[in-house]
Design brief:
heterodimer; A: 345 residues; mainly alpha; two-stranded antiparallel ribbon; 2 strands; globular; B: 173 residues; alpha+beta; Alpha-Beta Plaits; three-stranded antiparallel sheet; 5 helices; 5 strands; 13% strand; elongated; NADH_UbQ_OxRdtase_su1/FPO (chain A); cell membrane (chain A); translocase (chain A)
Chain lengths: 345, 173
């Protein structure tokens, strides 16, 4: 392995890491701003112009708060909980292709940390791991409310992962590849986007990602009215901050994943008809990809300030009795259509 | 049980139909409502930078007026105290001495004039009762304070400042 390659990858990883953290940081502000505008008010706008220093103030506040570990808590697991939550949230972005390649002098730089040929499975594994952070934290707190939150998180995560996986199978039947890079390359231009061939699959995937990120209307693990805050009741200081941060990073990564899988990733309409050089197309592609991600993040927030929370039995009904049969039907439908297309056209 | 008012409505809970059960139409309806609010102008007034204009008949803190020559108009007749429904006003009158003609317009004046701002309901009846046009509720808001005794405003806070500062005999409460 040559040195330049290592440096290139380290730089790319750090850059993505920083971008992820900054976006997560400013998602907290954006969330409050969106909430404000949707409720006919301005949101926080006192710290700096338009409140852009608000996330820094919040972060600073988290660091200065007293750190409390309850007497009855399992100390190791209590600290491990938020650690796992933030790590699993961060490593998800490793397989996402952020853009095509940049050519600087002789070097061709791929804007993807690593093109794992089972990228979709890797993402899935990471998402499945993330619930451990919540479960460990909730259980280690030695508090009934956090335990309830953790149990809810676990069961919700398992229920919705099934439907999510099934909706992805239908997508993989179309793309014939598990590599995210390959999936994006196939969706060149505008008409080849997977959303046009898998609308139902996308809908199921979207609903399940809401549940996986435990966002409203599926935020039962951290529901204030029933569980006084859920799995993170006993957490204070930056440990609570890490849990919240992990949630926003999750939102960012799921938005990136949805844009990659269904909305063509960095592809944009007429990208090959503009007569631009490869580097320019790459740069515009990266910007377009981020625009798509931000649109999804906005959608996450838009939903949050529109819908009330599901009741627990409604949540389970929706997951097991509606989404899973629907996802299976989608697989069958996709199979039938593929066979018909292959035989007759 | 029979309804006495005849306004009782019995609501029956119907099972949800297909469109209600798949939630999506209702969700889109909700989303359209919130996005409409997202683009609506925001009615918030950014207070410290922007102040809302007061209504013309706003009644704020009282001020005891002076006449054109800077003399106190109040003659301590007590009509304001009498008209006050909250009994917030008290005063002690005194007779004008020789050489005080430039301070007080009438022969009798209020040596002590106190309004208890915790009692005052800002109804403006004192203003209406005054025969000498000596009291008006044209000031700003009465500010918050820590002690009850600090809400009893004397002449030091009520009498409006003199326009000419040539005179060394400032009236004292």
């Amino acid at each position: 392995m040559e040195l330049a390659f290592v440096i290139e990858k380290v730089l790319l990883v750090s850059l993505i890491f920083v971008i992820t953290l900054v976006i997560a940081m400013y998602s907290t502000l954006a969330e409050r701003k969106v909430a404000g505008f949707m409720q006919d008010r301005f949101g926080p706008d006192r710290a700096g112009p338009f409140g852009i220093l608000q996330p820094l103030c919040d972060g600073g506040k988290f660091f200065f708060k007293e750190e409390i570990i309850p007497a009855g808590a399992h100390k190791t697991l209590f600290i491990l909980g938020p650690t796992i939550a933030i790590i699993t949230a961060c490593i998800g972005s490793a397989v996402i292709p952020w853009g095509q390649e940049l050519t600087i002098g002789e070097r061709v730089i791929e804007l993807q940390v690593t093109d794992v040929n089972v990228g979709v499975l890797y993402m899935f594994g990471v998402v499945a791991l993330s619930v451990y952070g919540i479960m460990l934290g909730g259980w280690a707190s030695n508090n009934k409310f956090s335990l309830m939150g953790a149990v809810r998180a676990a069961s919700q995560s398992i229920s919705y992962e099934l439907a999510m996986g099934l909706s992805l199978i239908a997508l993989l039947m179309v793309t014939q590849s598990l590599s995210l890079k390959e999936i994006v390359v196939q969706q060149e231009g505008f008409v080849n986007w997977n959303i046009w061939v898998q609308p139902l699959g996308f809908l199921i995937f979207l609903i399940c990602s809401f549940a996986e990120c435990s966002r409203v209307p599926f935020d039962l693990p951290e529901c204030e009215t029933e569980l006084i805050g859920g799995y993170n009741v006993e957490y204070s200081s930056m440990k609570l901050g890490l849990y919240m941060f992990a949630e926003y990073i999750h939102m960012f990564v799921s938005s990136a994943l949805m844009a990659t899988l269904y909305f063509g990733g960095y592809n944009f309409p007429f990208m090959n008809d503009l007569g631009l050089s490869q580097n320019w197309i790459t740069i515009i592609g990266v910007l377009v990809f981020f625009a798509k991600i931000f649109a999804f993040i906005f959608f996450f927030m838009w939903i949050r300030w529109t819908l009330p929370r599901f009741r627990y039995d409604q949540l389970m009904n929706l997951g097991w009795k509606v989404l899973i049969p629907l996802a299976i039907a989608n697989i069958v439908l996709t199979g039938v259509i593929t066979v018909i297309k292959d035989t007759f056209f | 049980m029979q309804s006495l008012s005849n306004r009782k409505k019995v609501l029956e809970q119907k099972p949800m139909n297909f469109w209600e059960r798949i939630y999506l139409p209702a969700i889109f309806k909700g989303l359209s409502i919130t996005i409409k609010h997202f683009f609506k102008p925001i009615p918030t007034v950014r207070y410290p930078e922007v102040e809302r204009p007061y209504s013309k008949n706003f009644r704020g803190q009282h001020s005891l007026k002076r006449d054109e020559e800077g003399r106190e108009r109040c003659t301590a007749c007590g009509l304001c105290a009498l008209s006050c429904p909250a009994e917030a006003i008290t005063m002690i009158s005194a007779e004008r001495q020789k050489g005080e003609e430039h301070l007080y317009r009438e022969e009798k004046y209020a040596a002590v004039y106190e309004i208890n701002m915790l009692r005052c309901i800002f109804c403006g009846l004192c203003e209406e009762a005054c025969p000498k046009e000596a009291i008006y509720l044209d000031g700003p808001h009465v500010t918050a304070d820590y002690l009850r005794k600090d809400f009893i405003y004397g002449k030091d806070k009520l009498v409006e400042p003199r326009f000419d500062y040539k005179d060394e005999h400032e009236p004292t409460a």
